[in-house]
Amino acid sequence: MASPDLTSAEPVAGDAPRQVTYETLDEGRIARIWLNRPEAQNAQSRTLLVQLDEAFGRAEADDAVRVVILAARGKNFSAGHDLGSEQALLERKPGPAQHPTFRSHGATVPAIAERTYRQEWHYFFENTRRWRDLRKITIAQVQGNAISAGLMLIWACDLIVAADDAKFSDVVGVRMGMPGVEYYAHPWEFGPRKAKELLLTGDSIDADEAHRLGMVSKIFPRAELEDKTVAFARRIAERPTMAALLIKDSVNAASDAMGFTEALRHGFHIHELGHAHWAAHNENRYPVGLPPDVPDWRTLGAPKLARRDEP
Question: Do you find a cis peptide bond into 292, omega within 30 degrees of 0?
Fold first, then answer.
């Protein structure tokens, strides 16, 4: 049985739909968080990210919850950061629809590089690291495209299950002239050479390739994804909560001993160097690559699937 509920976060505008919803299943043992912007391909506005953080915090605070599923409504898991929707533009601009986080955490600093650094540290990097260390086991349920910042959400989870139509890509290098998204886990998730290939081409990998690389644990038919993810979560929820936590911390600690956390921090700072470069390069001071230096991302469509026998 599912018990639907909503996060406590208020939408930016009074009548705007919730961008994240929360429910519990199996008498509260499983929490399921839904990205709820299907009309925008679950692109990550500031409202969505803040509500997502609150939802994860709510699950963490609930002692009945043993496993958290991160899922998404609609055809695609997430198209990444919301760069241009009307709603995202409104939440950045001064006025009644502005999200309060655009009045704090460095948002009012006049220097572009510092403003970008401080905002992205809080809302694109530190929040993702916090979700990675959540005191619950987390499972990402992925269908369709998980593009760029969509990867950040699923990489923060302990386990990833995918529909057979899932595809994974980071197009930030090709379309914005940046090294990749802010939570730079690519070498750990793809492997070093595959990470370079995918970042330099902007190509995607499918669910089978992601499974072969060890990034994805399970692949289910799209029509069965929701039910089989819950069944998988139920298996995990049978473990004693302390045992599950110790397993999670042991594996995470091993990754950290191999340099994972420090590599993330270094990758974030390199990302911010990219922003500073483009802010200095572009006449309008916009902190990412713009045409003609990079293609116009609005006209490129979905990433091409990487194939071993094609350039």
Answer: yes
